[in-house]
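testing teh design pipeline on a random one, pls ignore if ur not involved
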């Protein structure tokens, strides 16, 4: 029978064991050189592990808990430190913040350090000592490189809120948890909010108060912030952070900041988490962190080499030409027979001539351009040919089944944009990008395509800037595609001068140029990604590229199983004057087409979607809009389809249609409709190039007065330059283009009873309405009244596309022109007699065209198209006098070269410069510069 003292004895024994364990803990040797102060001990222990830190830079999140805790207590600390030490004891790298998991004795002695996680990993910034309130921590990243803005960061140590992940699958949530655990040691991760300090932006915009900018707009951002040492941060409590910079102060909520109005001098990084990749690519990245990048490159190289051996021998045995697989990629059962190539329009030079096949005999349709546009998936500009063309080429004569698909676009119609992802590339001060195409109707309904960009930052830290925000600085001699502030796309090799020109809005770099002037690898590079150091780079895998062609068009290349030489040969066959290799590997590389419109306005498809490469859905973050998307080819392995229409972790390119003439026709209003009524005419006008500068039409706007015709002229501000005419007969100024039109309002002034006057001005490729000159150098086009009481003509600026619209009443009577019933009649008087009802008619007409900026004229403008023809088609002398203005042809945004003076230099020059890492500031060893690329 059990003794009644047994429970008591057990308690005593347990107590003795606890006391012994406590004594053992107390007597166990402490880490950190035996220092009793836990901060000093932790700094010493970190130094042993390669992180230099001072005791004063240790912030303890969890204090000692005391009491009888036989095995000590877990405690967290955030430490400001740096890895590496230079000669002389100087710190080797910029400081980062490290989250340390430690164990303390009841008295607070450091017993052990179990894990160290770098929370910041900024590539070119020093972190300040953090401030802590509860589970909220804040600090400042101060940039060490030019053109980067200081940033304020707020971390939530108690876990990350998975905003934007409501529709994630269970597998995706598990992926995110594992990724968070690898990065922070916690399945919930750590919440993070980033605010960039940009005082120059608010000064440029003239706005200082919260709410000065419309919510959701993604305006171009300036490059320079305040002095980094002038930024300070404090936490009032665990829910509010106070930022002070340049004599200004802002109080920001730690949570829910997306819904808060921010001052103009602060921009917030998006807090929504991007969806993880598919299991294969995600697993590769997870394993890479464990075994290292070099080991992962070896694994991939072995696998791809084995696959290449199998496929090469398969083709040798079967004689496979790739025709069956190409047909499947194009969504066909077999390749269509070749058809007549769309003829080149001599006025605009588009589309270009077909491509010469490299492998013979060619397959049906190989090298022939196929238009993409005007259908259910790709929008086409009204009155213009499709802006996109696609084709395929086989460019490996030893493996005839391998192929490269090409998407070509006309950069005069299509504008290229760059978007930084929410993870890649991580900015110099820790600022990541929005990872999202701007959610405004003006942008979204003009989006036509998006594609991958370059390598991850770990594979070379090649430069990137997007919308004026510097994420990684440029590298000398790196192949670069850039966007000018006027919207032009330019290509070139960066010089040794790392200064970013003022005209540059965005840029992306990747390695050295692959093809220049239709020649392969002028810089003698031996490594193009996918192989470890010292291996011959013959890997066949997914590779992509982008190039400027000889005709100044832009092409994107996608090959599912190609070598670097095969990708380069495709560029050469496409007549590339400058070609850049982009990202590689399936899952991360590809191009998608999109068509976005308000709900109910997408054109009918007429068949079910083919889910493996077609999709449709709501546009997240923009209520009332839907998209339809399609991959470039059916067999493209790009993950998370549709990828770029949602928030994305990696940086990418996206393309939008420009605002060009002629635009959609005006809908006839008077019955019965007359042939050609409202259709814009561009042919036969003094365009002097493409895009068109002028468009002309006539329309009857009043069903109750079908005899009233309005003559309407549109002018694209991006295609013209304006200057006062000067003396009668004076030629255009030196350097000016051909004359597009001459305008004069004579001695026009606002008439009595018409209200206050205003003017239309032209400057820097735009029209605007203002009583006085809006900017220095603006040229006045015409002056009129803001009211329409006695108007017989009017001018307006379209709110959406910026086109100038001039409208006047035409004379009544039939037209004698042979091409259209309402074309200009040279025998008719230029204008009709004034009618009191015309003023209201002009006002309603311009308002209906979307012109909120309008002026009204008491007499018509004197207009001479080309300097010698009026709007009715009659020959005239050009207007003269002090109020006459000449519009001459200007080069519109398109594509071209930059940095053409950058020389081709040997490997020994460019390689050491590109090896310098922003983060590590290390110089290459001599043996590295003598060998191949890493």
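output:
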């Amino acid at each position: 029978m059990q003794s009644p003292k047994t429970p008591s004895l057990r308690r005593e024994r347990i107590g003795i064991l606890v006391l012994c364990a406590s004594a053992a803990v107390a007597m166990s040797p402490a880490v950190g050189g035996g220092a009793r102060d836990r901060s000093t001990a932790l700094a010493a222990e970190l130094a042993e592990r390669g992180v230099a830190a001072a005791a004063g830079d240790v912030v303890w999140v969890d204090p000692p808990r005391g009491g009888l805790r036989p095995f000590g207590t877990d405690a967290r600390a955030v430490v400001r430190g740096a890895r590496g030490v230079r000669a002389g004891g100087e710190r080797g790298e910029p400081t980062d913040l490290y989250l340390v998991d430690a164990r303390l004795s009841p008295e607070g002695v450091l017993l052990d350090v179990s894990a160290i996680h770098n929370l910041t990993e900024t590539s070119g910034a020093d972190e300040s000592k953090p401030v802590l309130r509860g589970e909220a921590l804040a600090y400042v990243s101060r940039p060490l490189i030019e053109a980067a803005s200081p940033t304020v960061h707020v971390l939530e140590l108690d876990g990350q809120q998975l905003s934007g992940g409501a529709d994630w699958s269970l597998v995706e949530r598990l992926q995110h948890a594992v990724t968070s655990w690898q990065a922070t040691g916690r399945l919930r991760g750590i919440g993070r909010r980033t605010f960039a300090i940009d005082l120059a932006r608010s000064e440029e915009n003239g706005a200082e108060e919260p709410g000065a900018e419309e919510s959701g707009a993604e305006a171009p951002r300036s490059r320079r912030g305040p002095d980094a040492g002038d930024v300070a941060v404090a936490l009032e409590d665990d829910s509010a952070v106070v930022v002070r910079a340049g004599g200004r102060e802002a109080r920001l909520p730690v949570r829910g900041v997306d819904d808060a109005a921010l001052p103009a001098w602060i921009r917030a990084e998006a807090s929504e988490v991007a969806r993880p990749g598919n299991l294969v690519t995600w697993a590769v990245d997870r394993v890479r962190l464990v075994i290292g990048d070099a080991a992962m490159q070896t694994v991939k190289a072995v696998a791809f080499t084995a696959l290449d051996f199998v496929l090469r021998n398969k083709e040798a045995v079967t004689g496979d030409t790739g025709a069956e697989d190409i047909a499947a990629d194009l969504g066909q059962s077999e390749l269509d027979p070749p058809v007549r190539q769309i003829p080149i329009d001599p006025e605009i030079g588009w589309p270009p001539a077909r491509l010469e096949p490299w492998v013979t005999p060619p397959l049906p349709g190989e090298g022939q351009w196929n238009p993409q546009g005007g259908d259910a998936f790709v929008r086409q500009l009204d009155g213009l040919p499709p802006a996109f063309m696609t084709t395929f080429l086989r460019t490996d004569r030893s493996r005839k089944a391998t192929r490269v698909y090409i998407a070509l676009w006309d950069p005069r119609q299509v504008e290229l944009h760059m978007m930084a992802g929410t993870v890649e590339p991580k900015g110099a001060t820790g600022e990541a990008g929005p990872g999202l195409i701007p959610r405004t109707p003006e942008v979204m309904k003009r989006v036509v395509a998006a594609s991958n960009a370059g390598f991850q930052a770990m594979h070379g830290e090649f430069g990137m800037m997007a919308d004026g925000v510097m994420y990684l600085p440029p590298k000398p001699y790196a192949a670069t595609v850039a966007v000018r502030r006027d919207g032009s796309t330019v290509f070139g090799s960066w010089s040794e001068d790392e200064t970013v020109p003022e005209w540059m809005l965005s840029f992306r770099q990747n390695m050295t140029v692959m093809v220049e002037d239709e020649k392969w690898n002028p810089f003698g590079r031996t490594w193009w990604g996918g192989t470890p150091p010292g291996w011959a780079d013959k890997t066949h895998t997914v590779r992509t590229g982008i190039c400027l062609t000889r005709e100044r068009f832009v092409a994107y290349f996608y090959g599912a199983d190609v070598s670097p030489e095969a990708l380069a040969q495709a560029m050469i066959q496409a007549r590339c004057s400058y070609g850049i290799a982009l990202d590689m590997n399936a899952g991360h590389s590809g191009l998608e087409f999109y068509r976005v419109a308000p709900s109910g306005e997408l054109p009918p498809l007429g068949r079910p979607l083919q889910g493996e490469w077609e999709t449709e859905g709501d546009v997240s973050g923009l209520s009332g809009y839907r998209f339809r998307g399609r991959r470039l080819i059916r067999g493209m392995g790009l993950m998370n389809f549709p990828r770029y229409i949602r928030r994305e972790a990696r940086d990418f390119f996206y393309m939008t249609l420009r605002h060009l003439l002629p635009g959609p026709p005006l809908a006839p209003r008077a019955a019965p409709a007359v042939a050609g009524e409202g259709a814009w005419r561009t042919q036969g006008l003094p365009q002097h190039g493409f895009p068109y500068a002028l468009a002309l039409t006539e329309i009857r706007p009043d069903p109750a007065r079908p005899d009233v015709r309005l003559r309407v002229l549109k002018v694209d501000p991006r295609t013209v330059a304006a200057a006062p005419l000067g003396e009668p007969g004076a030629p255009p100024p030196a350097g000016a283009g051909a004359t597009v039109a001459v305008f004069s309002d004579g001695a026009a002034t606002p008439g009595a009873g018409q209200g206050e006057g205003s003017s239309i001005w032209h400057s820097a490729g735009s029209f605007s309405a203002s009583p006085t000159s809006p900017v220095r150098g603006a040229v006045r086009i015409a002056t009129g009244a803001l009211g329409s009481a006695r108007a017989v003509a009017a001018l307006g600026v379209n709110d959406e596309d910026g086109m100038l619209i001039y409208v006047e009443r035409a004379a009544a009577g039939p037209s004698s022109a042979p091409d259209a019933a309402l074309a200009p009649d040279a025998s008719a008087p230029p204008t009709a007699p004034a009618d009191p009802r015309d003023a209201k008619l002009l006002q309603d007409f311009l308002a209906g065209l979307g012109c909120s900026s309008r002026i009204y004229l008491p007499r018509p403008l004197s207009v001479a198209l080309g300097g010698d023809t009026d709007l009715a088609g009659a020959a005239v002398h050009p207007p003269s006098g002090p109020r006459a203005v000449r519009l001459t042809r200007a080069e519109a945004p398109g594509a071209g070269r930059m940095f053409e003076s950058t020389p081709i230099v040997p490997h020994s020059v460019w390689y050491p410069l590109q090896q310098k890492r922003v983060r590590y500031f290390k110089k290459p060893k001599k043996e590295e510069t003598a060998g191949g690329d890493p």
